[in-house]
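Note to self: the last two entries modelled the partners one at a time, which told us nothing about the interface. This time every component goes in together.
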Amino acid sequence: QKEVEQNSGPLSVPEGAIASLNCTYSDRVSQSFFWYRQYSGKSPELIMSIYSNGDKEDGRFTAQLNKASQYVSLLIRDSQPSDSATYLCAVTGNDYKLSFGAGTTVTVRA
Amino acid sequence: SQTIHQWPATLVQPVGSPLSLECTVEGTSNPNLYWYRQAAGRGLQLLFYSVGIGQISSEVPQNLSASRPQDRQFILSSKKLLLSDSGFYLCAWNGGGQQPQHFGDGTRLSIL
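The predicted structure of the combined assembly is written out below.
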């Protein structure tokens, strides 16, 4: 069973600041890494996928992966109130299954 | 484009009653399909997954079962619900391999 740990939160940031979310995973053979955003009462929505070491940028979101350290992070630049949600880190290995972290709740203060 | 439909959106059932939740995917063929449960304030727990018609793998022993009668249809069932079955049930699909999973809108199940 892959274990995925996220910083516990909640994380409160002022509007316009950078929100930094961290995730570590236990299985060294993990191959694919995802960040999902989940608004309260809604289902998770994929916001980022990353498969190789380094940074991947998509708009205001940047995912960073370091397989040697078994660490993946998500940066949200210029945070907006609409970014207030729970962010789930998910990891998959050599099977079909995703393992999810418990999530980090982000609140952006106007 | 692909879409995933899940119903009903909310359901209130008495303890001991049966359950049937349905999920269908459009716009793709032979998807991998998944059922998850999310308890209040908790992470997602994988319940079942399927890589093809009639092929079901169970992750957690419990009183739930799953079936895949058609390529793009996935059903979650129970003969007798327990209080502990309350939660947010999510269906997801992907195209296999290391592709990301995409979720339906979920069913919020309350057991009385």
